[in-house]
What we know:
Elements: E1 2-5, E2 8-13, E3 16-17, E4 21-22, E5 25-31, E6 37-40, H1 47-56, E7 63-67, H2 77-83, E8 88-90, H3 93-98, E9 123-125, E10 145-148, E11 153-156, E12 160-162, H4 169-172, E13 178-180, H5 184-187, H6 194-208, E14 214-217, E15 222-224, H7 229-240, H8 242-252
Parallel strand pairs: 6-7, 7-8, 11-14
Antiparallel strand pairs: 1-2, 2-5, 3-4, 5-6, 9-10, 10-11, 12-13, 14-15
Helix pairs in contact: 6-7, 6-8
Amino acid sequence: MQQLAEDFWNIRAAYRVAGVLDIGTHMSAVRRPDGRFVLVDAAALDDASREALMALTEGGSLVDAVVHVHPFHTLQVEPLHRLFPSATLHGTARHRRLMPGLPWAGEPVERWQAGHPLADVFELSVPEGVDFVCPDERVHVASVLVRHPASRIVHVDDTLNVIAAPGVLGRLLPQSGLRMHPMLGRALQQRPGAADDYARWARGLAGRWSDTRFVCAAHSAVRELPPGGFEREVLDALERVRRTLDRHRRRHG
């Protein structure tokens, strides 16, 4: 568990594809102004991470809420709920559909507007122009991006990526800048204007969250950014998918 700011911790965890390739995943713990906590996402905690999280939250008694922001990150939802059964549970519509027996609160997270239940700690953004849940369930482009304004940290699953070498090499070799999801072309909605909507969303995000200091990306790494780095890297990532967006425009208008 890595403390990135006074009130923000990120926990990296293993996630193995086909039981072999570890592409990693993560969750975050954020302290509210009143000293209580919100957990973002769920990950398979090893003994050290579990003990650290329980110590931080006084045995879980300080955890107010858990929010799941990626519709396809589902494997650890129920285990985390068992660990913090008293926490208010928020998730996407897909979480609710797959796990109807859990005590989901309020509206699905992707529908939250201003004044949402966690507005005291988070700003949220949902990508435009893409299907939040694609018909092809192998495509995991969209998620609810979470920003903690007090620490200027973004927690994101899949929508933005950082390419980083695994294990020890990740500490020796340089990371990439921020990247859009490689399956973006398969997630864009099949309608005129979807590519433009996505590009407008990305440019708006780059400007609104331009002072971001860290990006915690699910399957890769935590990226520390210099001043203005978030805006530059998001715009650069958008430029890198220009051909994908142009192909969509030629096909759909």
